[in-house]
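User: Hi! I have a protein structure encoded as tokens and I'd like to know what sequence might fold into it. I'm fairly new to this, so please keep things simple.
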């Protein structure tokens, strides 16, 4: 495990720690560009070709969409214990997102006769990307599908890569059905993003695509921004365990591996002002990692030696500053007074407070959404909520009295900015009002 002593590092060394796999996406764009172009130009035939090339699965375009029979077979195939766990997760995640739903329409008086407000409506269509490359992720299906359905999106379609035999993951299909979603397509990677951006004969063109994916998926989203709304940046996993001398080293070591096991490009960091804790955690990690099966064991070893490790700071305030600068996707706060520490954190996709709230709970069934901004974008982006599937339309209304109150201000500013047509719209109404009075 890398150990970084923050106060002994120069600017370049610190920048290297802050850098993570997400920020190497540009190097993939040269690979992704011809994939995007091929899907735009050749449609389904390109998807067939790339599915065979990248997923090692031969499919006909008519097989992209999962049939109802396959959903039924998934219900039979999936162990009931897994189905019940999915149902519990859906229940809690739905309860959380239902509380987020705003009033569909509101108006407030700005001044006498002047009203301003918003109409809230769901977006017309959205594709949800559920990855499969490093495992099966029905939890991602839940975290995307529930808020999309709660928000009332008009058309929801799911993209998820096929398995070795061309099958869709059974748990993902069960999760989709529990969310209330029936349109699932067995396509993945950059080609899936391009397909939903441009549309093909078999894949519908969508207004938005949202969900985490590989570096290639992230690169495709960045290239297609402006063609399709690509949602929040959700790339390789990252986490910070924020700790102090009171933190249980067994808990810190165990929790450090939660996000590290996602992949070799994950960034998992222990941030603390306690050198003793770092030593204890470092001593425990080899045995914990050795117990993991492959490929998780290699993922953890690679990630902790490349993008992760431990950052030793001078004090808790310096630890907090590091967290705010790094802006992690997941943050566990395991300090002696975690609620006090939490109040000092501004930049994190999620904050999980205290030793009873590991990232695992947030990832699956706590209720909060686990699709979160990565690559330091937690500085400006939020995790997935119903608001990702809603849009606001501003509404204004003036009575005659309200118009009279605002007209001089609007006319003055229009004339100052050199927009005579703007001003004429005010003057014309004023003249008509005068003419009507003189009749």
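Assistant: Happy to help. Inverse folding works backwards from shape to sequence: for each of the 439 positions I chose a residue that suits the local structure. Here it is:
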């Amino acid at each position: 495990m890398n150990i970084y002593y923050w106060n002994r590092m120069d600017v370049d060394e610190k920048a290297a720690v802050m850098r993570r796999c997400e920020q190497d996406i540009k190097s993939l764009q040269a690979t992704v560009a011809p994939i995007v172009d091929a899907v735009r130009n050749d449609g389904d035939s390109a998807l067939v070709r790339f599915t065979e090339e990248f997923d090692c699965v031969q499919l006909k375009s008519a097989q992209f969409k999962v049939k109802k029979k396959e959903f039924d077979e998934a219900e039979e195939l999936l162990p009931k214990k897994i189905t019940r766990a999915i149902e519990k997760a859906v229940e809690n995640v739905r309860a959380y997102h239902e509380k987020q739903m705003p009033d569909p329409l509101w108006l407030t008086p700005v001044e006498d006769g002047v009203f301003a407000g918003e109409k809230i409506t769901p977006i017309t269509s959205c594709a949800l990307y559920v990855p499969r490359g490093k495992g099966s992720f029905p939890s991602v299906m839940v975290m995307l599908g529930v808020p999309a359905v709660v928000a009332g999106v008009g058309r929801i379609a799911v993209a998820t890569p096929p398995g070795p035999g061309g099958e869709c993951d059974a748990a993902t299909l069960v999760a989709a059905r529990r969310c209330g979603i029936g349109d699932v397509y067995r396509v993945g990677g950059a080609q899936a993003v391009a397909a939903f951006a441009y549309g093909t004969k078999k894949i519908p063109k969508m207004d938005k695509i949202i969900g985490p994916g590989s570096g290639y998926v992230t690169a495709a989203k960045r290239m297609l921004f402006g063609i399709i709304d690509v949602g929040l940046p959700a790339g390789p996993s990252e986490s910070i365990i924020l700790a102090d001398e009171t933190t249980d080293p067994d808990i810190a070591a165990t929790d450090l591996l939660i996000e590290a096991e996602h992949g070799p490009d994950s960034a998992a960091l222990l941030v603390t002002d306690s050198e003793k804790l770092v030593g204890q955690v470092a001593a425990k990690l080899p045995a914990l990692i050795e117990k993991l099966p492959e490929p998780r064991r290699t993922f953890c070893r690679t990630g902790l030696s490349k993008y992760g490790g431990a950052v030793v700071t001078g004090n808790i305030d310096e630890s907090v500053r590091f967290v705010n600068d790094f802006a992690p996707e997941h943050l566990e706060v395991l300090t002696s007074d975690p609620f006090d520490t939490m109040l000092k954190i501004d930049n994190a996709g999620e904050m999980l407070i205290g030793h009873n709230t590991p990232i695992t709970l947030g990832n699956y069934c706590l209720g909060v959404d686990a699709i979160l901004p990565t690559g330091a974008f937690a500085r400006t982006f939020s995790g997935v909520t119903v608001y990702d599937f809603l849009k606001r339309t501003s509404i204004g209304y003036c009575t005659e009295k309200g118009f009279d109150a605002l007209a001089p201000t609007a006319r003055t500013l229009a004339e100052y900015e050199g927009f005579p047509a703007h001003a004429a719209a005010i003057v014309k109404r004023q003249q008509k009002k005068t003419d009507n009075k003189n009749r």
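A useful reference point when you look it over: The radius of gyration is 26 Å. Feel free to ask if any position seems puzzling.
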